[in-house]
Design brief:
Layout lengths: L2 E12 L3 H9 L18 E4 L8 E5 L7 E10 L3 E10 L4 E14 L2 E13 L8 H24 L1
Antiparallel strand pairs: 1-7, 2-3, 3-4, 4-5, 5-6, 6-7
């Protein structure tokens, strides 16, 4: 099946220390404190081992709805510095598989933090559905913008 790659770099200046942002993102079962649910995401469950560390596995998306859930792994864990996630999502309607890599970095900057999120998508889908690739990308882009905005709003409150 043909594969294509897409990536985007998201940044935000957040008036909070790097450690606060790192802890909010690493405490995956508690995302509900700061990240409201959406069409794509309800919560993160089954985090093992917990507290989160390198190699922790998690159940994400909408864990109670088969076909709208996925499993992931923490692939990088440097407290207050960086945090990485990997998961694979099946988009059954388009017979596509999206391999997702997310990298967060936290750079102190005066009294705030430069928060960066790098999203890399490897999208495998039949050539006939390739014109609909933009639907997948737009959904990911919207969710990443929403996540960054919610994290900033909560951390600064």
């Amino acid at each position: 099946m043909p594969t294509s790659q897409w990536h985007k770099f998201y940044t935000a200046d957040v008036a909070a220390p790097p450690g606060v942002l790192f802890e909010l993102l690493a405490d995956m079962p508690s995302y509900g404190r700061w990240l409201p649910g959406s069409q794509q995401f309800a919560r993160t469950t089954d985090v093992e081992p917990y507290p989160v560390r390198l190699g922790s596995r998690y159940h994400d998306g909408k864990p109670d709805e088969p076909g709208k859930d996925w499993w992931g792994t923490v692939t990088g864990f440097q407290p207050s510095g960086s945090l990485d996630f990997h998961h694979t999502i099946a988009v059954t309607q388009l017979r596509a598989t999206v391999d997702v890599h997310i990298h967060y970095s936290f750079e102190p900057e005066n009294a705030s933090t430069q928060l960066s999120r790098w999203l890399v998508l490897d999208i495998a889908m039949p050539a006939i559905f390739r014109p609909l690739r933009r639907l997948i990308i737009n959904g990911f882009d919207k969710e990443n913008l929403r996540t960054m905005a919610a994290l900033k709003k909560y951390a600064e409150a």
